[in-house]
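Let's study my pick:
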Amino acid sequence: MHLHKEKALSLPLGPLSLTPPVFLAPLAGITDLPFRRLVARFGAGLVVSEMVASEEVVRNRPEARARAELGFGEQATSVQLAGRDPHWMAEGARFVEGQGARVIDINMGCPSKRVTTGLCGSALLRDLDLALALIEAVVKAVQVPVTLKTRLGWDDRLHNAPDLARRAEAAGVRMITIHGRTRCQFYKGHADWAAIRAVKEAVTIPVIANGDITDTATAREALRLSGADGVMIGRGAQGAPWKLAQIAHDICGTAAPKIPEGGALGRMILDHYDDMLTFYGRELGLRMARKHLGWYLDEAGLPHAREAILTSTDPAEVIQLLEQAFAELELAA
Protein backbone atom coordinates (compact mmCIF):
# COMPACT_ATOMS: atom_id res chain seq x y z
CA MET A 1 0.00 0.00 0.00
CA HIS A 2 1.26 3.49 -0.83
CA LEU A 3 1.80 5.89 2.04
CA HIS A 4 0.16 8.77 0.18
CA LYS A 5 -3.18 6.99 0.09
CA GLU A 6 -5.77 8.41 2.47
CA LYS A 7 -7.25 5.29 4.07
CA ALA A 8 -6.12 2.00 5.54
CA LEU A 9 -6.49 -0.99 3.26
CA SER A 10 -8.51 -3.04 5.77
CA LEU A 11 -10.99 -2.54 8.57
CA PRO A 12 -11.22 -5.17 11.32
CA LEU A 13 -14.75 -6.35 12.15
CA GLY A 14 -14.69 -9.12 14.70
CA PRO A 15 -12.99 -12.10 13.01
CA LEU A 16 -13.32 -10.45 9.60
CA SER A 17 -11.01 -8.10 7.78
CA LEU A 18 -13.02 -5.85 5.46
CA THR A 19 -10.75 -5.08 2.52
CA PRO A 20 -11.08 -2.43 1.14
CA PRO A 21 -13.20 -0.13 3.37
CA VAL A 22 -15.51 0.70 0.46
CA PHE A 23 -18.89 -0.99 0.94
CA LEU A 24 -22.09 -1.48 -1.05
CA ALA A 25 -25.12 0.13 0.59
CA PRO A 26 -28.43 -1.69 0.94
CA LEU A 27 -30.92 -0.45 -1.67
CA ALA A 28 -34.47 -1.78 -1.82
CA GLY A 29 -35.16 -3.64 -5.05
CA ILE A 30 -31.55 -3.23 -6.22
CA THR A 31 -28.94 -4.91 -4.00
CA ASP A 32 -30.30 -8.42 -4.48
CA LEU A 33 -28.00 -11.43 -4.67
CA PRO A 34 -27.22 -11.12 -8.42
CA PHE A 35 -26.13 -7.47 -8.07
CA ARG A 36 -24.22 -8.06 -4.82
CA ARG A 37 -22.40 -10.94 -6.47
CA LEU A 38 -21.42 -8.75 -9.43
CA VAL A 39 -20.18 -5.84 -7.30
CA ALA A 40 -18.23 -8.24 -5.07
CA ARG A 41 -16.58 -9.78 -8.12
CA PHE A 42 -15.06 -6.40 -9.05
CA GLY A 43 -14.02 -5.76 -5.44
CA ALA A 44 -15.84 -4.48 -2.35
CA GLY A 45 -15.00 -4.87 1.31
CA LEU A 46 -18.60 -5.66 2.21
CA VAL A 47 -21.88 -6.00 0.35
CA VAL A 48 -25.15 -5.46 2.21
CA SER A 49 -28.50 -7.02 1.39
CA GLU A 50 -31.73 -5.16 0.90
CA MET A 51 -33.54 -4.46 4.16
CA VAL A 52 -35.31 -7.60 5.41
CA ALA A 53 -38.22 -7.52 7.84
CA SER A 54 -37.12 -9.70 10.76
CA GLU A 55 -40.52 -11.27 11.51
CA GLU A 56 -41.27 -11.96 7.84
CA VAL A 57 -37.98 -13.74 7.25
CA VAL A 58 -38.62 -16.04 10.22
CA ARG A 59 -42.24 -16.71 9.28
CA ASN A 60 -41.07 -18.04 5.91
CA ARG A 61 -42.10 -15.21 3.59
CA PRO A 62 -40.40 -16.17 0.29
CA GLU A 63 -39.81 -12.52 -0.72
CA ALA A 64 -38.01 -11.69 2.51
CA ARG A 65 -35.85 -14.80 2.24
CA ALA A 66 -34.98 -14.01 -1.36
CA ARG A 67 -33.76 -10.57 -0.32
CA ALA A 68 -31.53 -12.15 2.31
CA GLU A 69 -30.28 -15.06 0.17
CA LEU A 70 -26.55 -15.04 0.37
CA GLY A 71 -24.42 -17.06 -1.98
CA PHE A 72 -22.26 -19.09 0.33
CA GLY A 73 -18.48 -18.88 0.18
CA GLU A 74 -18.57 -15.52 -1.59
CA GLN A 75 -17.42 -12.05 -0.55
CA ALA A 76 -18.26 -10.99 3.01
CA THR A 77 -22.01 -10.43 3.06
CA SER A 78 -24.06 -8.47 5.55
CA VAL A 79 -27.79 -9.03 5.90
CA GLN A 80 -29.72 -5.98 7.02
CA LEU A 81 -32.64 -6.55 9.40
CA ALA A 82 -35.43 -4.16 10.33
CA GLY A 83 -38.04 -4.49 13.03
CA ARG A 84 -39.48 -3.08 16.24
CA ASP A 85 -39.82 -6.21 18.40
CA PRO A 86 -36.70 -7.49 20.20
CA HIS A 87 -37.97 -11.10 20.04
CA TRP A 88 -38.40 -11.09 16.27
CA MET A 89 -35.18 -9.18 15.70
CA ALA A 90 -33.31 -11.85 17.67
CA GLU A 91 -35.08 -14.68 15.82
CA GLY A 92 -34.42 -13.04 12.45
CA ALA A 93 -30.75 -12.61 13.33
CA ARG A 94 -30.45 -16.28 14.31
CA PHE A 95 -32.09 -17.33 11.05
CA VAL A 96 -29.83 -15.32 8.75
CA GLU A 97 -26.74 -16.30 10.74
CA GLY A 98 -27.76 -19.91 10.17
CA GLN A 99 -28.06 -19.18 6.45
CA GLY A 100 -24.47 -18.00 6.33
CA ALA A 101 -24.53 -14.25 6.97
CA ARG A 102 -21.06 -13.14 8.05
CA VAL A 103 -22.36 -9.81 9.41
CA ILE A 104 -25.80 -8.66 10.61
CA ASP A 105 -26.72 -5.01 10.15
CA ILE A 106 -29.59 -3.33 11.99
CA ASN A 107 -31.56 -0.76 10.01
CA MET A 108 -32.32 2.40 11.95
CA GLY A 109 -32.05 4.70 8.95
CA CYS A 110 -34.79 3.90 6.43
CA PRO A 111 -36.90 7.08 6.11
CA SER A 112 -39.90 5.69 4.21
CA LYS A 113 -43.28 6.43 5.77
CA ARG A 114 -44.31 2.78 5.43
CA VAL A 115 -41.34 1.76 7.60
CA THR A 116 -41.35 4.61 10.11
CA THR A 117 -45.11 4.39 10.68
CA GLY A 118 -44.46 0.89 11.97
CA LEU A 119 -41.87 2.30 14.42
CA CYS A 120 -39.02 0.76 12.42
CA GLY A 121 -36.07 2.25 10.54
CA SER A 122 -35.28 5.85 11.37
CA ALA A 123 -38.35 6.14 13.64
CA LEU A 124 -36.14 4.46 16.27
CA LEU A 125 -34.14 7.70 16.48
CA ARG A 126 -37.14 9.02 18.44
CA ASP A 127 -36.98 6.18 20.97
CA LEU A 128 -33.39 5.32 21.85
CA ASP A 129 -34.47 2.98 24.67
CA LEU A 130 -36.36 0.78 22.20
CA ALA A 131 -33.47 1.09 19.75
CA LEU A 132 -31.09 -0.23 22.39
CA ALA A 133 -33.44 -3.08 23.33
CA LEU A 134 -33.39 -4.20 19.69
CA ILE A 135 -29.60 -3.91 19.46
CA GLU A 136 -29.06 -5.85 22.69
CA ALA A 137 -31.42 -8.62 21.55
CA VAL A 138 -29.59 -9.08 18.25
CA VAL A 139 -26.09 -8.95 19.76
CA LYS A 140 -27.03 -11.59 22.35
CA ALA A 141 -28.66 -13.84 19.73
CA VAL A 142 -25.69 -14.33 17.39
CA GLN A 143 -21.96 -14.92 17.26
CA VAL A 144 -21.28 -12.91 14.08
CA PRO A 145 -20.49 -9.17 14.25
CA VAL A 146 -23.49 -6.84 14.51
CA THR A 147 -23.40 -3.41 12.87
CA LEU A 148 -25.80 -0.47 12.75
CA LYS A 149 -26.89 1.86 9.95
CA THR A 150 -28.69 5.06 10.87
CA ARG A 151 -28.99 8.78 10.13
CA LEU A 152 -27.90 12.00 11.86
CA GLY A 153 -31.21 12.19 13.70
CA TRP A 154 -34.96 12.49 13.19
CA ASP A 155 -34.87 16.17 12.16
CA ASP A 156 -32.68 19.25 12.52
CA ARG A 157 -33.77 19.66 16.14
CA LEU A 158 -32.79 16.11 17.06
CA HIS A 159 -29.26 15.21 15.93
CA ASN A 160 -28.88 12.33 18.40
CA ALA A 161 -26.81 9.90 16.32
CA PRO A 162 -23.73 10.41 18.58
CA ASP A 163 -25.78 9.39 21.64
CA LEU A 164 -27.19 6.35 19.84
CA ALA A 165 -23.70 5.43 18.63
CA ARG A 166 -22.23 5.56 22.15
CA ARG A 167 -24.99 3.36 23.53
CA ALA A 168 -24.79 0.97 20.57
CA GLU A 169 -21.04 0.55 21.03
CA ALA A 170 -21.56 -0.22 24.73
CA ALA A 171 -24.17 -2.84 23.74
CA GLY A 172 -21.72 -4.64 21.45
CA VAL A 173 -22.20 -3.10 17.99
CA ARG A 174 -18.91 -3.37 16.05
CA MET A 175 -19.36 -0.71 13.34
CA ILE A 176 -21.74 2.15 12.56
CA THR A 177 -22.71 3.60 9.18
CA ILE A 178 -24.15 7.10 9.15
CA HIS A 179 -26.16 8.55 6.28
CA GLY A 180 -25.46 12.27 6.44
CA ARG A 181 -29.10 13.37 6.48
CA THR A 182 -31.91 13.40 9.03
CA ARG A 183 -35.00 11.29 8.53
CA CYS A 184 -37.10 14.34 7.70
CA GLN A 185 -34.72 15.28 4.89
CA PHE A 186 -35.37 11.90 3.23
CA TYR A 187 -33.00 12.19 0.21
CA LYS A 188 -33.38 15.92 -0.39
CA GLY A 189 -30.62 18.50 -0.31
CA HIS A 190 -27.07 17.30 0.25
CA ALA A 191 -25.63 14.85 2.75
CA ASP A 192 -23.85 16.65 5.59
CA TRP A 193 -20.62 14.68 5.81
CA ALA A 194 -19.11 17.10 8.34
CA ALA A 195 -21.93 16.29 10.80
CA ILE A 196 -20.83 12.64 10.78
CA ARG A 197 -17.63 13.71 12.58
CA ALA A 198 -19.55 14.04 15.88
CA VAL A 199 -20.40 10.34 15.66
CA LYS A 200 -16.80 9.43 14.83
CA GLU A 201 -15.63 11.36 17.90
CA ALA A 202 -18.24 9.68 20.14
CA VAL A 203 -17.05 6.07 19.62
CA THR A 204 -13.94 3.95 19.17
CA ILE A 205 -15.45 1.47 16.70
CA PRO A 206 -15.25 2.11 12.92
CA VAL A 207 -17.62 4.70 11.48
CA ILE A 208 -18.61 4.61 7.80
CA ALA A 209 -19.83 7.65 5.86
CA ASN A 210 -22.82 7.28 3.54
CA GLY A 211 -24.95 9.57 1.39
CA ASP A 212 -24.23 11.23 -1.99
CA ILE A 213 -20.90 9.39 -2.39
CA THR A 214 -20.82 8.56 -6.08
CA ASP A 215 -17.18 8.74 -7.21
CA THR A 216 -13.60 9.20 -6.00
CA ALA A 217 -13.92 12.97 -5.53
CA THR A 218 -17.03 12.71 -3.33
CA ALA A 219 -15.55 9.77 -1.42
CA ARG A 220 -12.40 11.76 -0.64
CA GLU A 221 -14.40 14.78 0.48
CA ALA A 222 -16.74 12.69 2.64
CA LEU A 223 -13.76 11.07 4.35
CA ARG A 224 -12.04 14.43 4.86
CA LEU A 225 -15.05 16.15 6.38
CA SER A 226 -16.30 13.24 8.49
CA GLY A 227 -13.06 11.65 9.63
CA ALA A 228 -14.79 8.33 8.90
CA ASP A 229 -12.96 5.03 8.46
CA GLY A 230 -14.58 4.12 5.16
CA VAL A 231 -17.42 4.86 2.78
CA MET A 232 -20.64 3.14 1.75
CA ILE A 233 -21.91 3.66 -1.79
CA GLY A 234 -25.37 2.99 -3.17
CA ARG A 235 -26.68 4.92 -6.17
CA GLY A 236 -23.15 5.50 -7.49
CA ALA A 237 -22.92 1.79 -8.31
CA GLN A 238 -26.08 1.73 -10.41
CA GLY A 239 -25.07 0.84 -13.94
CA ALA A 240 -21.42 0.72 -12.84
CA PRO A 241 -20.80 -2.27 -10.54
CA TRP A 242 -17.05 -1.64 -10.82
CA LYS A 243 -17.39 1.83 -9.21
CA LEU A 244 -16.56 0.66 -5.67
CA ALA A 245 -13.40 -1.08 -6.85
CA GLN A 246 -12.36 2.04 -8.77
CA ILE A 247 -12.84 4.26 -5.71
CA ALA A 248 -10.93 1.75 -3.57
CA HIS A 249 -8.06 1.80 -6.06
CA ASP A 250 -7.91 5.59 -6.01
CA ILE A 251 -8.17 5.94 -2.24
CA CYS A 252 -6.58 2.80 -0.81
CA GLY A 253 -4.22 1.70 -3.57
CA THR A 254 -5.94 -1.62 -4.27
CA ALA A 255 -5.66 -3.18 -7.72
CA ALA A 256 -7.45 -1.21 -10.43
CA PRO A 257 -10.56 -2.95 -11.72
CA LYS A 258 -10.72 -3.96 -15.36
CA ILE A 259 -13.68 -1.85 -16.46
CA PRO A 260 -15.51 -3.63 -19.28
CA GLU A 261 -16.12 -1.77 -22.52
CA GLY A 262 -17.85 -2.56 -25.81
CA GLY A 263 -18.39 -6.28 -26.26
CA ALA A 264 -17.00 -7.10 -22.80
CA LEU A 265 -19.55 -4.75 -21.22
CA GLY A 266 -22.31 -6.36 -23.26
CA ARG A 267 -21.27 -9.83 -22.06
CA MET A 268 -21.20 -8.66 -18.43
CA ILE A 269 -24.71 -7.22 -18.77
CA LEU A 270 -26.02 -10.40 -20.43
CA ASP A 271 -24.52 -12.49 -17.62
CA HIS A 272 -26.17 -10.23 -15.02
CA TYR A 273 -29.49 -10.49 -16.88
CA ASP A 274 -29.25 -14.28 -17.00
CA ASP A 275 -28.41 -14.36 -13.28
CA MET A 276 -31.52 -12.30 -12.49
CA LEU A 277 -33.78 -14.53 -14.60
CA THR A 278 -32.39 -17.58 -12.81
CA PHE A 279 -32.74 -15.98 -9.37
CA TYR A 280 -36.26 -14.56 -9.74
CA GLY A 281 -37.77 -16.72 -12.47
CA ARG A 282 -38.73 -15.54 -15.96
CA GLU A 283 -41.61 -13.14 -15.28
CA LEU A 284 -40.36 -11.42 -12.14
CA GLY A 285 -36.76 -11.44 -13.40
CA LEU A 286 -37.81 -9.65 -16.59
CA ARG A 287 -39.38 -6.83 -14.55
CA MET A 288 -36.70 -6.61 -11.87
CA ALA A 289 -33.92 -6.37 -14.47
CA ARG A 290 -35.36 -3.39 -16.32
CA LYS A 291 -33.96 -0.71 -14.01
CA HIS A 292 -30.49 -2.26 -14.19
CA LEU A 293 -30.65 -2.47 -17.98
CA GLY A 294 -31.72 1.18 -18.16
CA TRP A 295 -28.74 2.26 -16.05
CA TYR A 296 -26.37 0.15 -18.13
CA LEU A 297 -27.64 1.59 -21.40
CA ASP A 298 -27.28 5.14 -20.08
CA GLU A 299 -23.77 4.42 -18.79
CA ALA A 300 -22.78 2.89 -22.15
CA GLY A 301 -24.19 5.81 -24.14
CA LEU A 302 -27.00 3.78 -25.72
CA PRO A 303 -30.15 5.72 -24.74
CA HIS A 304 -31.68 5.08 -28.18
CA ALA A 305 -31.88 1.36 -27.36
CA ARG A 306 -33.80 1.90 -24.11
CA GLU A 307 -37.39 1.87 -25.32
CA ALA A 308 -37.30 -1.40 -27.25
CA ILE A 309 -35.27 -3.23 -24.58
CA LEU A 310 -37.17 -1.94 -21.55
CA THR A 311 -40.65 -2.50 -23.00
CA SER A 312 -40.07 -6.01 -24.36
CA THR A 313 -41.91 -8.78 -22.52
CA ASP A 314 -39.80 -11.58 -24.01
CA PRO A 315 -36.43 -12.32 -22.36
CA ALA A 316 -35.11 -13.88 -25.58
CA GLU A 317 -35.92 -10.67 -27.46
CA VAL A 318 -34.26 -8.57 -24.74
CA ILE A 319 -31.09 -10.66 -25.10
CA GLN A 320 -31.15 -10.29 -28.88
CA LEU A 321 -31.63 -6.50 -28.66
CA LEU A 322 -28.82 -6.18 -26.11
CA GLU A 323 -26.47 -8.20 -28.29
CA GLN A 324 -27.36 -6.03 -31.27
CA ALA A 325 -26.87 -2.75 -29.35
CA PHE A 326 -23.45 -3.73 -28.00
CA ALA A 327 -22.30 -5.18 -31.35
CA GLU A 328 -23.04 -1.78 -32.89
CA LEU A 329 -21.19 -0.08 -30.04
CA GLU A 330 -18.13 -2.25 -30.61
CA LEU A 331 -18.16 -1.56 -34.34
CA ALA A 332 -18.31 2.18 -33.68
CA ALA A 333 -15.36 2.06 -31.26
User: Anything to note?
Assistant: Residues 262-280 form the longest helix (19 residues). The chain has a mean pLDDT of 90. Residues 28 and 60 are 19 Å apart (CA to CA).
